[in-house]
Write a structure and sequence with these properties.
The chain is of the alpha+beta class. Helices cover about 35% and strands about 40% of the residues. Keywords: Signal.
Length: about 260
């Protein structure tokens, strides 16, 4: 309507000044008059972008035509995680580490090995859950999961400068607020749907907390020096080690949960 009024105003003005302009200027007015509706009718780039920006929901069918309640499924997976502390641990394939520490004119050689994920606590769903179509027509459920605390353990051996064994025991490292991206693939087999863990990728390293060293022979000053020397080793790739161990927990939980119960048929 604004465009129509503007065109009407231009036409009226043109008639009023018709007698005051020469024929050449009259042609210019006519060109502007004809172009005005086209300019006013053109949609803005902002409106085009907004119109093409759509948001999918986890209970809408994906491109494969399958409707999955992804949010409820992920919540059930989290509830099925067996997080009993200390009953079992998972090998995280961390490399061995050797270092030397000097204290009170004595040299101590420390070897750290056998890294394991002892426990995880406080797993929660972070943000939205998406259900998308995979390249082969399967459905993939995508979600981010946070771990409030993970505990990694290592075996350590301390020798003196002469090679004599001084002490051996266990290191314990606490990591807080870790986040992983989890993808679960859903496939159809003989009219029934099955789910399997596709991948777990670390998103954040988390926060490195306390490091404890079970010692009886070494004094506190030496232990403090050793823990300080191990900081870079205990923080490097720790997010990958936790994700690696977390896969084992998720494999078990997915095996206990029937994804077929969360598919609308």
């Amino acid at each position: 309507m604004v465009g129509v009024r503007l065109v009407h105003q231009l036409a009226t003005s043109l008639l009023e000044i018709n007698k005051q302009i020469n024929p050449a200027n009259m042609k210019l007015f006519l060109v502007l008059l004809l172009a005005a509706p086209l300019v006013l009718a053109k949609p803005s780039q902002k409106n085009i972008r907004q119109g093409s920006n759509t948001e999918s929901k986890d209970d809408d069918p994906d491109e494969s035509g399958v409707t999955i309640n992804g949010l409820s499924y992920i919540y059930e997976i989290v509830s099925q995680l067996d997080l009993k502390d200390g009953e079992s641990s998972i090998n995280i394939h961390a490399p061995d580490y050797e270092n030397s520490v000097e204290s009170d004119n004595d040299t101590y050689d420390i070897l750290v090995s056998n890294g394991r994920l002892r426990s995880i606590k406080g797993v929660e769903c972070a943000g939205d859950v998406a259900v998308v179509a995979g390249d082969d027509g399967d459905s993939v459920i995508l979600s981010n999961l946070t771990i409030s605390e993970a505990v990694l353990t290592y075996k350590y051996i301390v020798n003196g400068s002469d090679g004599e064994l001084i002490e051996e025991g266990r290191l314990e490292s606490h990591i807080y607020t870790v986040e992983d991206a989890v993808s679960v693939r859903v496939q159809k087999h003989n009219h029934k749907y099955k789910a399997k863990l596709e991948d777990v990728e670390p998103i954040s390293n988390g926060i490195i907390g306390d490091v404890k060293m079970s010692h009886k022979v070494l004094d506190d000053a030496v232990v403090t020096e050793m823990i300080s020397s191990l900081q870079s080793y205990l923080t490097q790739d720790v997010d990958k080690y936790i994700a690696e161990g977390f896969k084992e927990y998720l494999h078990s939980a997915i095996g206990k949960t029937d994804v077929d119960d969360y598919i609308k048929k």
